[in-house]
Amino acid sequence: VETLAGKGSLNHFATALLDFLRLPYTGCRTDALFITSNKPLAKKMLRQAGIATPDWITLEDETESPSPGEVYFLKPCREDASVGLDDRAVVQMQNPQTIRDTLRERQDALGLDCFAEAYIDGREFNIALLASDQGVRVLPPAEILFLDYPPDKRKVLDYRAKWVEDSFEYSHTVRSLSIAPQDERLADRLRDIALSCWHLFGLRGYARVDFRVDGNGIPWVLEVNANPCLSPDAGFAAALDFAGIEYTGAIDAILRDALKP
Predict the structure, then answer these.
(1) Is 184 exposed, middle or buried (0-12, 13-18, 19+ CB in 10 A)?
(2) Residue 250: pLDDT band with limits 50, 70, 90
(3) Which pLDDT score is estimated for 83?
(4) Residues facing 126 on adjacent strands
(5) How far is residue 3's CA from residue 19's CA, in Å, rounded to a whole number?
(6) Which of 124, 153, 178, 210 has its CA 20 to 30 A from that of 73?
(7) CATH C-level class of 14-54+121-141+177-258
(8) Phi and psi of 256, rounded to 5°?
């Protein structure tokens, strides 16, 4: 269940009901779904655990003081699939009050609670994780390549890149699972951070961690995705295939994990 009544913020209701009925289910548990789907809350936990995540601003927290000139993306707090992420979500910060005023306008336009997240200029990766009888398996890192993007266009996996098939963004973003030898140390670092996220949020079954890597090679966790898409044509399945894991075998592993006490 990805939404309830069209709201991603309610996705944990289904598992909460199953918890109440004491029925097993696959994937992450209710508390992990609730926390990770609340992106500002998840970012607070990441930062408290010493895991780098980009700076952010919410309307509830007046303590953040972003530096003038920084670029921020306005994102819904509790929606996934890059909902609401488009060119209109890009804000060049002039002063804290300006960005908060823009954030209020964006919330009203989308009808969703939003936050502003600092843009990390660099590369984009994700790491999928799969439960197994031997413990969690960290799958090969995937890099999102932004091909032939104009210099003035932010390289972001936004809504059009994911879902609008006739768009420039969709046709010019490519997933690559081939890691160059010079990136092996970075790949190991991404795997370690992804595994730390698995344990921090108490994930189960399957998950994915999304990263940006800045020009200094420092990874920043954008978000932790509990129960990411398992469609055969999605990124999780591509990582399974690259790792030599049969799709049906992965589904079986997720089912077995659901039946553990």
Answers:
(1) exposed
(2) very high
(3) 72
(4) 142, 210
(5) 18
(6) 178
(7) alpha beta
(8) -65, -40
CB 207 within 8 A of CB 198: yes
CATH 3.30.470.20, the chain: domain bounds: 14-54+121-141+177-258
As given in the structure block, the two tokens for residue 261 are: 């006490």
Task: For 105-123, write each residue's pLDDT tens digit.
Answer: 888 888 888 899 999 999 9
- When pLDDT is averaged across residues 91-100 and rounded to a whole number, the result is 78
Res 251: pLDDT: 96
- Distance (Å) of CA 169 to CA 160, 164, 173: 6, 8, 6
Average pLDDT of the chain to the nearest whole number:
89
Burial of 239 (0-12, 13-18, 19+ CB in 10 A): buried
What topology is assigned to 55-119 in CATH? Answer: Dna Ligase; domain 1 (3.30.1490)
Cα separation, 72 vs 69, whole angstroms: 9
Specify the domain boundaries for CATH 3.30.1490 within the chain: 55-119
Transcribe 135-147 into DSSP letters.
Answer: SPEEPPPEEEEET
User: Band of the pLDDT at 182, cuts 50, 70, 90?
Assistant: very high
The alpha carbon of residue 52 and the mean position of all alpha carbons in its chain are separated, in whole angstroms, by 14
Burial of 115 (0-12, 13-18, 19+ CB in 10 A): buried
C-alpha to C-alpha distance for 78 and 39, rounded to whole angstroms: 6
